[in-house]
Amino acid sequence: MEEAVRSVSFNNDGSQLALGMKDGSFTVLRVRDMTEVVHIKDRKEVIHELKFSPDGSYLAVGSNDGLVDIYAVGQRYKKVGECNKSSCFITHLDWSVDSRFLQTNDGAGERLFYRMPAGKFLPKEETKGIHWMTWTCVLGQEVNGIWPKYSTVNDINSVDANYSSAVLVTGDDFGLVKLFRFPCLKKAAKFKKYIGHSAHVTNVRWSHDLQWVVSTGGADHSVFQWRFLPEGVMNGVLEPLLQEGYADSNSGESDSDLSDVPELDSDIEQEAQMNYERQVYKEDLPQLRKKLVGSLKRQKAPDEGLRLQFVHGYRGCDCRNNLFYTQAGEVVYHVAAVAVVYNRQQHTQRFYLGHDDDILSLTVHPLKDYVATGQVGRDPAVHVWDLQTLKCLSLLKGQHQRGVCALEFTADGKSLVSVGIDEGHNIVIWDWRKGEKLAKARGHKDKIFVVKGNPFRMDKLVTVGLKHVKFWQHTGTV
């Protein structure tokens, strides 16, 4: 072909093949000798999708102009209708079994219905009882469950339903081919995922005998053929029954019992479920000890003692920006309730042991060898301490609940900003030397990952969190 091909479709008996072009034209070929039947150009933008009607009478051609044109096959592809209610480019379309209706998806996330062949718009209320010959649309109640949390309308590129086995195959931007039950009505539905593509999956389709799935890759320029194995059901999850000689190609189940999100999102999902509240806090222990011991005579403590020598590990599961080089070239980080100063040359560690619960955040002073660390707690403390002496310089409390998830010194080192994991994720600005609160504000309903100060303006901050970025200015005490 002289022009690049963007979409293809066979008619039902396989005698003709329609090709949608990047220049807005389409060509129909006679399959037996690949001769041209007709070439038509009614649009300027790429033909993204086209399909013959089940009875073979019409061809629907969807373009990036946001229109679907209907052509009568028996009249040498004369245009007989137009679907024009979409506000964006056409992405998917399906015919009804009786060839009387068409459904479309577009780039704006709309699912629309039309009466064929004229293309008259059909309200959703009038679509009940319509049976679709194919299901390749990514939007609709029937496929609600395929969309992971935090996804956008273009994250899933293609779907195809296997009616006889009641399953749906999907291809997405994360390089995954997935199998869902169909219809897939409930949000966060269980799935089986299959890894092979190295980049986004552009299309997935069942073979005519429903024994195979063919998937195409974008950046990897590959075509994969997957064998569909008969499946059993265990706890409502798709479980392929492996046949001799066929491995379950790097398959995996849903990332989480709570929601089925892609692997790139699963760490955020797991982090959102973490509970930092304690049944017993360390400050409760003396009182509990008195109740438990009562009047029992206690034995003398042993003469021997323990000294911490080396700590293996680093807290990265729910923390960010918590590992730094010191001015002397040592590495400072934290794990459990210990702040670690590691000397790479000598392979030795020094420890700040002032915290009484897990440390969640750490930052270093921009000018001096000082470190600030924040912890979990009913009234969580922020410690500012000296890297050389490992002595606490300032203890900041009374403004947060549950824990402190982010810290940042201002560029002049005079103020310290802390972010809590309480419901409002409150932001507090401290005069850390005096131990005084300078300002406080509600941050956001969702978790804040990081706070950063403007290097030139001490009164300006930015916070970044789950699906939000906020800019702040310190205008006085609050």
Mass-distribution shape: elongated
Rounded Rg? 31 Å
Give the termini distance in whole angstroms.
Answer: 69 Å
What would the average pLDDT be, to the nearest integer? 87
| CATH topological fold name of the largest domain | Methylamine Dehydrogenase, Chain H
Largest sheet: 8 strands, antiparallel
Enumerate the spans where pLDDT stays under 50 for 5 or more consecutive residues.
232-250, 255-266
Q: How many β-strand stretches?
A: 37
Q: According to CATH, what is the class of the largest domain?
A: Mainly Beta
By CATH, the superfamily of the largest domain comes out as YVTN repeat-like/Quinoprotein amine dehydrogenase
Helix count, DSSP H or I runs of 4 or more residues: 2
Give the helix/strand class.
mainly beta
Tally of distinct domains: 3
Oligomer: single chain
Explain this structure to me?
- This protein has two helices and 37 strands.
- With 478 residues, it is mostly beta strands.
- It starts with a strand and ends in a 5-residue tail after the last strand.
- Mean pLDDT is 87; it is low at 232-250 and 255-266.
- Residues 348-476 form the EML-like first beta-propeller domain.
- This is Echinoderm microtubule-associated protein-like 6.
- Residues 1-227 form the EML-like second beta-propeller domain.
- One of its GO terms (molecular function) is microtubule binding.
Question: What labels would you give this structure?
Answer:
single chain, 478 residues, mainly beta, Methylamine Dehydrogenase, Chain H, 3 domains, 8-stranded antiparallel β-sheet, 5-stranded antiparallel β-sheet, 37 strands, 4% helix
